[in-house]
Amino acid sequence: MKHAQAVLFDWDGTLLDSFPASYRASLTVLRHYGINVDRERFLETYSPNWYDSYEQLGVSRDEWDNADQMWRENYRTQTSSLFPFTSALLERLDADGYRMGIVTSGDRERIFRELESFGLERFFAVVVCFEDTVEKKPHPAPLAHALEKLDLAAETTIYVGDRPEDIAMGRKLGAFTVGVESEYGPRTVLEDAGPDLILPDASHLPRGMGLD
User: Fold this and answer.
1) 108-118 and 64-75 helices cross at what angle (nearest 10)?
2) Is the N end or the C end of the chain the one with fewer CB atoms within 10 Å?
3) 103: β partners
């Protein structure tokens, strides 16, 4: 990490505390299709590529676009907040000269709406969303796309996320991977993914990077 030039982040569960809103929106969609799940089943089938989740839970492929639209409309009625540390963390990394970006499975309209509402756009030199690549996490394509835009090698990059798919994506390209615990990704799940470093949350990142 001493030679890192950039820090790229996942969004949901890493910088944004979106699990409650996402969970409620997902339950609404699934109930529409006659599918009832509890929290345990939701997490068992959760994937940043929500098409994988739909398939596991039995949502007809013909309904995936409708399910997406329904989820987005319901999510907009919910409230998600930044984690208390997010703004200070980004200020710190920016002051220390790190380039930053987001590589997320969230849809572009939502992610940019949230970045604007929280006043965070200025921190990120690149934002890669679900629509930007054909292959999705854990495939390395989203992170590779971000690195290409930044003209950086993976070896000079730290990728921070809260799901095994985040860790797998970073490892495949040779980035330094940091797993952060969240409601989407508990520690046991992250340990199985084998990140270079696991932290309780992203507020511990500066110390993990040797900045404190």
Assistant:
1) 10
2) C
3) 128
